[in-house]
């Protein structure tokens, strides 16, 4: 049944991106000066979860690497580490430039120098940039002549209205290039699923009405649709059948959504994961109790404003928790 299992993974970057032609052209234009030895345009990508923001960035950078020498991609998701050194270490490590550097005990300026000293041009993709702890990290990166930034987050207004970002950040990035992605329509998501099916499965193993059913269940979220497809495929294989059915999709709906949730949980950095674990294990917990428990569990607790930003991300970006009440009366619970 399977020709290429990787094509059914959400992290797989396909050979072609469906229904993102205009955004691809825009990002290609922003990065094209790099192929001629110049700096690219710093770019921000906005859009709801599951619209392919990260895939778009990686797809276009890969395209650039295929067409030009001396281009490196550096990727980091700030949900897995949002402190300045964590962001810089993640970028340097992913680029392959700093594998000789230890993860702990390295000053931020050493990572910056590692990037600056590279003969290659680095396209630094900073995902979930809205949860970054130190906004000056972005200024330091954007000052490097051999680094072009792609910053990814959900909402443009929320990012630029964040009081943490001072005038330098706003002036530097408010007028940079912007790429906006919309949630996929039903027919668009069906096309995306068919592209994955053609790349990963043998012909004739799934009917069009089953693909339509998956797309409808995923409700415009490509990540969820791909997980549903992969899990339904695995169920059919386990049952020693050669066709994927609607019954397979129904049977894996809960586990697919749990997988999507667990991917988010596994990506959390130390402090975000600690906050989540406390809430998840408590079921329901007050803001005051959460603060005290958190401070007992970590050696260098984050400030209240930073904790609140992390909690907001856990709730509104990933849907891992919910909250009721305001300020000190807030109560958190896991979803």
Automatic annotation (TrEMBL):
Stored InterPro entries: AAA+_ATPase (IPR003593), AAA_22 (IPR049945), Cdc6_lid (IPR055237), ORC1/CDC6 (IPR050311), P-loop_NTPase (IPR027417)
Keywords tagged on the record: ATP-binding, DNA replication, Nucleotide-binding
Annotated GO MF terms: ATP binding; ATP hydrolysis activity
Source taxon at top rank: Archaea
GO biological process: DNA replication
Pfam families reported for this sequence: AAA_22, Cdc6_lid
Annotated ranges, domain AAA+ ATPase: 39-180
Transmembrane segments: none
Keyword set includes Transmembrane helix: no
Record-stated family: Belongs to the CDC6/cdc18 family.
Designated name of the protein: AAA family ATPase
Species of the source: Natrarchaeobius chitinivorans
């Amino acid at each position: 049944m399977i020709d290429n299992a990787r094509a059914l993974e959400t992290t797989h970057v396909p050979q072609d991106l469906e229904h993102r032609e205009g955004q691809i052209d825009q990002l290609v234009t922003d990065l094209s000066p790099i192929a001629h030895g110049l700096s690219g345009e710093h770019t921000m990508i906005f859009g709801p979860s599951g619209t392919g923001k990260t895939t778009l960035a990686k797809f276009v950078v890969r395209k650039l690497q295929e067409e030009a020498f001396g281009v490196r991609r550096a990727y980091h998701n700030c949900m897995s580490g949002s402190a300045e050194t964590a962001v810089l270490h993640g970028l340097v490590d992913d680029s392959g430039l700093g594998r000789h550097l230890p993860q702990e005990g390295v000053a931020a300026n050493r990572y910056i120098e590692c990037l600056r000293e590279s003969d290659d041009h680095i396209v630094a993709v900073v995902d979930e940039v809205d949860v970054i702890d130190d906004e000056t990290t972005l200024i330091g990166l954007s000052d490097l002549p051999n680094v072009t930034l792609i910053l990814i987050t959900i909402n443009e207004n929320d990012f630029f209205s964040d009081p943490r970002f001072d005038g330098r950040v706003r002036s530097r990035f408010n007028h940079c290039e912007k790429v906006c992605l919309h949630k996929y329509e039903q027919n668009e998501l069906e096309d995306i699923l068919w592209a994955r099916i053609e790349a990963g499965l043998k012909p004739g193993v799934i009917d069009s009405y089953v693909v339509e059913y998956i797309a409808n269940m995923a409700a415009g979220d490509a990540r969820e649709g791909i997980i549903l497809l992969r899990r339904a495929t695995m169920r059919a294989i386990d049952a020693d059948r050669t066709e994927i059915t609607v019954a397979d999709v129904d049977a894996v709906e809960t586990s697919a959504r749990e997988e999507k949730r667990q991917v988010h949980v596994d990506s959390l950095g130390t402090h975000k994961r600690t906050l989540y674990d406390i809430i998840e294990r408590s079921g329901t917990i007050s803001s005051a109790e959460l603060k005290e428990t958190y401070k007992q569990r970590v050696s260098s607790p984050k400030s209240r404003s930073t904790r609140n930003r992390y909690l907001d991300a856990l709730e509104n970006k990933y849907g891992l928790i919910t909250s009721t009440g305001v300020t000190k009366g807030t109560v958190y619970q896991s979803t």
